[in-house]
């Protein structure tokens, strides 16, 4: 306006209640104010007042949802040739413009190609991607952001100060949060609350009206889950159900609670990132102290999976309760940092372990190149094979030494497998997603902790005879644990139970998907060592295992 470069069409895009039509009316005033055109319309002249009252003949507001056909747009075009009655411009504000039909857009496009000089269009939409590019390219486009939480709160504070309403900051935050970035929703929620409770607003009434899960109950439930107290966790969930919350909102509240716990554990100024009162944050802080970030993340994954199966479930509360039990029974996962630290100490304490035995390999990526020299005592062992061997073996108890006179079995070169085996090949009658879900549940029934370990994995191959599960590099901890023979057997049994046929299960790293070939290689590699080299290797393995047992105060079970 200041540069006298007013466009003929503006497009205001953004979520509902962020001020698009309000801004459109302000722009109309700026164009038609008697003291304008001016970026600062006076708001008091008769042109401005008429616009405020919705009585201006020169401002035409059209609801795109109810005037979406070509006939309405043709009628509109008919009116364009009339000059404005008193202002400088005729301003057409079309709200929800994405609702127009294709034909209506085409008719509109013709107008936009040759706009009359006295006409300004302002289109408002919540769904920018439904508007044809031909229209968008002829408009000046503005994208309206959601109103920030603090922006909504300060606007509401302005209202309570003007109207003498007493409300706690917790309730204000709850209302602002429920509005999800829409100032209009925040104001109407606030009006409802005041209409219901009067000017002395009670926190509990607000929670009830908004359908929020109370922070106290939420903290109780999360704390019980983390303490692995399934009974208390179930009781709190039942109590929430009695209060009238549905399964979806409870699961979302739990997810949000876990999110807050992670924020509390990973940021220096969590209060700015958690829209809760100080007292509620303190409550969660206590819960956060008894769990690691990895624990919480594992719980979060369970909820995400459960929320998906909640949709279409006959009894959603049953799914919710199973999720709660599962979370309460997931084994505590030591943080990777603490394991890494312990293993590094172990490495320092041991006398120069051979390359294959470097305990750090247990969780770090195996070296890609044959950098390490072969151990002198195992001359037949070639470095590349040593390095390709999966680290799983190193945590296992020593195998009985080979008979000294056992002839070395010649090592067979594995035939390279076609890359296509990595493509998902679901040949089972069960849909791939259902199979993966069912497999996880079956494993969880057998060993709850292993079920949790499986979650970050993904099915790479699922054929009649083979199931290959891949893990990203960051999930090496889960992968190596699952690759242990005993654990692999559990997964294998579960896979066979779910698919109803015999399946070869392989656990691989996504970064090294050919790794699953190594399992087939395992036998020959072991046997190809000379007896004395083998014994020395076994001795070193025993040392490493004993050190691991000492550090983690564990017991060898098998
Ligand atoms: Zn004015």
From TrEMBL:
- Spell out the residue ranges making up region: Disordered: 365-429, 511-539
Q: What is its EC number?
A: 2.7.7.7
Q: Outline the extent of the AAA+ ATPase domain.
A: 6-148
Bias (Pro residues) occurs at: 367-378, 397-417
Which top-level enzyme class is recorded in the Swiss-Prot or TrEMBL entry?
Answer: transferase
Keywords, A to Z, come to:
ATP-binding, DNA replication, DNA-directed DNA polymerase, Metal-binding, Nucleotide-binding, Nucleotidyltransferase, Transferase, Zinc
What GO terms in the biological process aspect are recorded for it? DNA-templated DNA replication
Alphabetically, the GO molecular function entries are: ATP binding; DNA binding; DNA-directed DNA polymerase activity; metal ion binding
Quote the cellular component terms of the Gene Ontology held in the record.
Answer: DNA polymerase III complex
Cross-referenced SMART domains, in alphabetical order? AAA
Question: What does the record give as the reaction this protein catalyses?
Answer: DNA(n) + a 2'-deoxyribonucleoside 5'-triphosphate = DNA(n+1) + diphosphate
Coiled-coil parts of chain = none
Q: Where is the composition biased (Basic and acidic residues)?
A: 511-520
State the function annotated in the UniProt record.
DNA polymerase III is a complex, multichain enzyme responsible for most of the replicative synthesis in bacteria. This DNA polymerase also exhibits 3' to 5' exonuclease activity.
Oligomeric state and partners? DNA polymerase III contains a core (composed of alpha, epsilon and theta chains) that associates with a tau subunit. This core dimerizes to form the POLIII' complex. PolIII' associates with the gamma complex (composed of gamma, delta, delta', psi and chi chains) and with the beta chain to form the complete DNA polymerase III complex.
Which family does the record assign? Belongs to the DnaX/STICHEL family.
Protein name from the UniProt record: DNA polymerase III subunit gamma/tau
The root-end lineage is: Bacteria, Pseudomonadati, Nitrospinota/Tectimicrobiota group, Candidatus Tectimicrobiota, Candidatus Entotheonellia
């Amino acid at each position: 306006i200041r540069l006298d470069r007013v466009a003929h069409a503006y497009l205001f895009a953004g979520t509902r209640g962020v001020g698009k039509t309000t801004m459109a009316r302000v722009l109309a005033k700026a164009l038609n104010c008697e003291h304008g055109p001016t970026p600062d319309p006076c708001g008091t002249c008769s042109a401005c007042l008429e616009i405020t009252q919705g009585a201006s003949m020169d401002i035409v507001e059209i609801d795109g949802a109810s005037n979406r056909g070509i006939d309405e747009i043709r009628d509109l075009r008919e009116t364009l040739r009339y000059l404005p009655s008193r202002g400088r411009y005729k301003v057409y504000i079309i709200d929800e413009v994405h609702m127009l039909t294709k034909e209506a857009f085409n008719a509109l496009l013709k107008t936009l190609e040759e706009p009359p000089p006295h006409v300004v269009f302002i289109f408002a939409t919540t769904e920018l991607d439904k508007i044809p590019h031909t229209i968008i390219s002829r408009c000046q486009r503005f994208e309206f952001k959601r109103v920030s939480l603090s922006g909504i709160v300060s606007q509401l504070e302005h209202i309570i100060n003007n109207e003498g309403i007493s409300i706690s900051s917790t309730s204000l935050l709850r209302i602002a949060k429920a509005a999800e970035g829409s100032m209009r929703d925040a104001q109407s929620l606030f009006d409802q609350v005041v209409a219901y409770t009067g000017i002395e607003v009670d926190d509990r009434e607000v929670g009830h009206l908004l359908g929020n899960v109370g922070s106290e109950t939420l903290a109780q439930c999360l704390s019980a889950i983390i303490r692995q107290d399934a009974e208390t966790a179930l009781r709190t969930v039942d109590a929430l159900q009695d209060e009238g919350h549905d399964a979806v909102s409870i699961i979302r509240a739990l997810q949000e609670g876990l999110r807050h716990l992670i924020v509390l554990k990973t940021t220096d100024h969590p209060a700015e990132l958690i829209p809760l009162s100080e007292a509620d944050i303190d409550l969660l802080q206590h819960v956060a102290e008894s769990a690691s970030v990895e624990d919480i993340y594992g719980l979060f994954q369970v909820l995400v999976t459960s929320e998906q199966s909640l949709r279409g479930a006959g009894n959603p509360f049953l799914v919710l309760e199973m999720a709660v039990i599962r979370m309460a029974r997931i084994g505590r996962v030591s943080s990777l940092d603490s394991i890494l630290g312990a293993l590094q100490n172990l490495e320092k304490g041991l006398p120069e372990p051979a390359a294959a035995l470097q305990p750090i390999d247990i969780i770090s990526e195996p070296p890609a190149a044959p950098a390490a020299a072969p151990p002198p005592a195992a001359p037949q062992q070639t470095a590349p094979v040593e390095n390709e061997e999966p680290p799983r073996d190193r945590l296992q108890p020593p195998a009985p030494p080979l008979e000294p006179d056992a002839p070395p079995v010649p090592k067979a070169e594995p035939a390279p497998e076609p890359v296509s085996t990595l493509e998902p090949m679901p040949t089972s009658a069960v849909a791939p997603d259902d199979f993966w879900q069912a497999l996880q549940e079956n494993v969880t029934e057998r060993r709850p902790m292993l079920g949790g370990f499986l979650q970050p994995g993904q099915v790479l191959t699922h054929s009649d005879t083979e199931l290959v599960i891949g893990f990203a590099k960051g999930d090496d901890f889960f992968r190596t644990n699952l690759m242990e023979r005993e654990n692999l057997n559990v997964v294998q049994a579960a896979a066979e139970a779910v698919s109803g046929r015999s399946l070869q299960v392989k656990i691989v790293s996504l970064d090294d998907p050919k790794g699953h070939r190594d399992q087939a290689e395992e036998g020959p590699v072991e046997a190809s060592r000379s007896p004395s080299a083998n014994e020395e290797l076994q001795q070193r393995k025993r040392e490493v295992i004993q050190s691991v047992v000492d550090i983690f105060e564990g017991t060898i079970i098998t």
